[in-house]
């Protein structure tokens, strides 16, 4: 059996053509000929199955060590298919810090569909146990699933997949993990007890901001059959060219992620001592928990971090003046991106909900790419300088220096 980096490059070879091509072919056919009316071919119609998609589905199933993989037209299409295996009346416990689009899909679509959701801090296993257990005597049945993100978006809280899956299983619930921020390079949730792994493959797996894709891997044939039904009948499949783009992205995942993590650590260290920065969220910072990461089964913290500017400084003044970082949503790609969660990626969350979990109006999220770290740090430095000048201009009458030294800006 090959090792992880070899698997990234080769996947499971198909060798289904005689050209010697080292890459698997892109099959654009939507329909496939039957030899005879009664001879059902391996493939009949592209929504039900396509060899290029199947290569990617087997590739991600191999990397996540699951029984079967599925490719969808986006991360949200993947999440939609997974949640559609439940039925009206079912209750799902959801981490209280998840991607805004997932939050919106749950609350604005699936509640209309009859699912109910209980939000909980999944880092608190006691609170999680109570939430999953429900209160059957008062008509709240145990939850059918726990849904959470391995490292949360945008606060970078690290969840303990093993502990959460154990709680879910005590009550017969499925543990569903959005592993987008981590990828199988840093953690394989199915090995820690999760039942379903979801990826927005748009991010690290594809890695170049050029394809929208979602992937799902499951640990049992039973769940696989239910997800296959959703994939085929809801029909949100990933087209062949996009499947190939994700396959190609996956080949360089480890190289990109290593560089992104090196750069992210350097940027986090820089931010930590910057006077305009109040707080840095990056689980890879020494002391923030290398050991805690390992205890939770993670080999690294990834390339995303977030930070809060000090009160009075407008985060938009920092963001609007970046040149190397692009002001854009999304993450995990080769180029560095910066954004304001409260106005961009997490605007769907009501403000009180956001503030309750710590997504403040001052929180900036950075997705670190593979550029030279010095360019990233210089870019942030000049943007902070402009933000500080604007702060000073806005407070022309105040004694800014004494505020800075007395800790208002510290
Ligand atoms: N899950 C997470 C953690 C995300 O950050 C995103 C998008 O940002 C999604 C899911 C949705 O994925 P997509 O945009 O590919 O639909």
From TrEMBL:
One of its GO terms (molecular function) is transferase activity. It comes from the Bacteria. Keywords: Pyridoxal phosphate, Transferase. It comes from Bifidobacterium colobi. SUPFAM superfamilies: PLP-dependent transferases (SSF53383). Its cofactor is pyridoxal 5'-phosphate. Pfam families: Cys_Met_Meta_PP. Gene3D superfamilies: Aspartate Aminotransferase, domain 1, Type I PLP-dependent aspartate aminotransferase-like (Major domain). The keyword Transferase applies. Belongs to the trans-sulfuration enzymes family. The keyword Kinase does not apply. InterPro entries: Cys/Met-Metab_PyrdxlP-dep_enz, Cys_met_metab_PP, PyrdxlP-dep_Trfase, PyrdxlP-dep_Trfase_major, PyrdxlP-dep_Trfase_small. This is PLP-dependent transferase.
